[in-house]
Write a structure and sequence with these properties.
By secondary structure, this protein is mainly beta. It has one domain. Strand 2 and strand 3 form a beta hairpin. The longest helix is centred in the first third of the chain and has 7 residues. The radius of gyration is 16 Å and the shape is globular. The termini are far apart.
Length: 158
């Protein structure tokens, strides 16, 4: 195996960071949608891959396994289990102000590894094409370290 890296290839090194994790628990879809208010959401369902403001989320629970969402202050991860949404939020800034809206547990200081995410090629059709606007974003993956390694996603303008 060749491990030499082309000088033009992107570097995917992780940047360690501290963050605050808040578990919101098992919510019905209406409560999860309310928690997502004001975010941009990404999910794949039987209709393809979606990248849209939370205001455009479907009224019924999506036929999906995961949904990722973000705004300027937080990232959210939703794992669907039938009609339920297992929901958590992650804040990576140093601002404080109490528990996030809808929090059910105490905030927990956690370590994350922040890595660049790569949008798939326009020719990739496994989950449907990405919206053209997705290519104008810089994605980051925030991976919790420790015994529960889950990934949050956020996008920033390029």
């Amino acid at each position: 195996m060749n491990t030499d890296r082309s000088p033009d290839s992107p570097r995917h090194e992780a940047r360690p960071q501290r963050a605050t994790l808040e578990r919101h628990g098992r919510l019905d879809w209406a409560r999860a949608r309310a928690l997502l208010d004001g975010t941009v959401c990404a999910w794949a369902d039987l209709g393809g891959f979606h990248l849209a403001p939370a205001a455009q989320l479907p009224e019924e629970t999506p036929d999906s396994t995961h949904l990722w969402a973000w705004d300027a202050d937080r990232c959210l991860r939703v794992r669907f289990d039938g009609p339920w949404a297992l929901t958590a939020s992650l804040r990576t800034d140093d601002r404080t102000g109490g528990a996030p809206d809808g929090a059910t547990g105490r905030p927990e200081d956690v370590g994350v590894l922040v890595r660049p995410g790569t949008a798939w090629s326009p020719d990739e059709k496994h989950a449907g094409p990405l919206a053209a606007g997705a290519y104008a974003l810089r994605f980051e993956l925030l991976e919790l370290t420790g015994p529960s390694p889950v990934t949050f996603v956020r996008a920033l303008p390029t």
